[in-house]
Each structure stands twice: as C-alpha cells, then as structure tokens.
Amino acid sequence: MVEQLKFIVEQLKRPPFNRKDYNILTFDNLTNNQLLQVLTDVFAVVDPYDPSHKIDIRDEEPDKTATRHMNTLKMLGYRPKLETDVNTFRQNLVSGDKSVVFPILQWLLEKIPEHKERAYLGRYLSRIDVPSEFLSDPEIAEQHER
C-alpha cells in the first residue's frame, strides 16, 4: 500500500495535475470526500470532453457522484481487483473508502494516455438507448442489434 500511495502522489505532482502540496502523509490523511474529489479531478483529465467531471463534489449528491464514477469506470474498462460484489464496491466508492479509491487512482494514473483515448472513443462506441417505439421498425431494430 505504501508503494501504491507513493506512486499516486508522485503522479499527482506531475503535469497536468501539479499537486505539489501532496506527500505520502498528507495524501493518506485526506478525508474520504477529498479523495473522491481527487478521483473526480483525475477523471476530468482523462475525459476532458465530459464537462460533468469538472465539478466540486460538495455541490453534487453522493449518489449522482457514484453513478458518474461507476459509468466512467465502466466505459474505461476498469475491473476491481477486490473479491467483492458490485453493490459492495459501489458502497465503498460512494463512501470514498481508500481500499477502493487508491487502486482506481493507481490504475488511472498508470496509463493516462490509453485511458484518454478510450474515453474519447467510448463516447462514440458505447451503446445508445433507443426508445422501444423506434425498435418496432425492423430496419432500426436490425441496426440496433449490430
């Protein structure tokens, strides 16, 4: 965990984050909400085309923050290493639990260029919701199934 924390702090000190005020001790002592804000800030760099990440999470309801984080992680292809179910993972993410947030931050910071590309492409390659009344048209239904 110390190596993980050291890596996260070192990466956050570099551009584009430039968080020179962090060291291992100060970062480890961040509150859960502050950790969630750091995660949101990293998402804002990884996915600059989504304005929903450029937010102060104190102005957003926790459930909305969790949904936004979960959707972004899903789009980026994050797979939790923990042997927990989705609901437990979501609850720990909502609460800003370090055992969930630190691995996510490490995963994001290890491959920022790849995640940026995936976030950009994910916008165009993700499945869209088509209202059921349009799916009654066979041609639209066929295209939607592809």
Automatic annotation (TrEMBL):
Q: Which UniProt keywords apply?
A: Acetylation, Cell projection, Cilium, Cilium biogenesis/degradation, Coiled coil, Cytoplasm, Cytoskeleton, Differentiation, Phosphoprotein, Spermatogenesis
Which compartments does it reside in? Cytoplasm, Cytoskeleton, Cilium basal body
Q: Indicate the segments forming the IFT81 calponin homology domain, all copies.
A: 3-129
Q: Name one GO molecular function term.
A: tubulin binding
Q: Which cellular component terms (GO) are annotated to the entry? A: ciliary basal body; intraciliary transport particle B
- Please classify the protein's predominant subcellular localization into one broad category: cytoplasm
Pfam families under this entry? Answer: IFT81_CH
Biological process (GO) annotations? cell differentiation; cilium assembly; intraciliary transport; spermatogenesis
Q: Which family does it belong to?
A: Belongs to the IFT81 family.
Q: What does this protein do?
A: Component of the intraflagellar transport (IFT) complex B: together with IFT74, forms a tubulin-binding module that specifically mediates transport of tubulin within the cilium. Binds tubulin via its CH (calponin-homology)-like region. Required for ciliogenesis. Required for proper regulation of SHH signaling. Plays an important role during spermatogenesis by modulating the assembly and elongation of the sperm flagella.
Q: What name is this protein filed under?
A: Intraflagellar transport protein 81 homolog
Question: Native species of this protein?
Answer: Adineta steineri
